[in-house]
Design brief:
Blueprint lengths: L4 H15 L3 H8 L3 H9 L8 H10 L6 H6 L13 H45 L1
Helix pairs in contact: 2-3, 2-4
Length: 131
């Protein structure tokens, strides 16, 4: 099932309006960066977010920690006092860890790519200088 980020944005907008908050207040209470709150709230950038980000926003808005994840996946959000199976938390935690590692690897590969390009430019310039 595809992720519905527009539904997440609408749920957040509605709840923020109900609470009389602004995006800054949600960012402050959730400890999520204002830029990310703005992107999700306004549905301006659609990309996978950490389950912890959705959890932090859900809790700050007074919802169950898995509320926004359920909205994202087109499911009925759990009640505030409903328990979350440990295995579900473990899976999300492991996926977050894998995602962080992939981001770190991607950044390292980008650095290597830039370094190789720089070396190739220098070698090419030296060869042209000798010709």
């Amino acid at each position: 099932m595809p992720e519905d980020w527009a539904a997440v944005a609408e749920a957040i907008r509605t709840r923020v309006r109900e609470l009389g908050w602004e995006q800054r207040e949600l960012a402050r209470r959730s400890h999520v960066s204002p830029a990310i709150v703005r992107e999700i709230h306004g549905h301006t950038v659609e990309r996978r977010r950490s389950s912890r980000t959705l959890e932090a926003l859900s809790v700050a808005l007074g919802w169950h920690p898995r509320h926004l994840d359920a909205v994202l996946r087109g499911r009925t959000p759990p009640q505030v006092d409903e328990s979350v199976p440990d295995d579900a938390v473990t899976v999300w935690s492991r996926l977050d860890s894998i995602e962080r590692r992939l981001v770190a690897l991607t950044e390292k590969l980008d650095d290597i790519d830039r370094n190789v390009a720089t070396v190739a430019e220098h070698v090419s310039a030296k060869r042209r200088g000798r010709s």
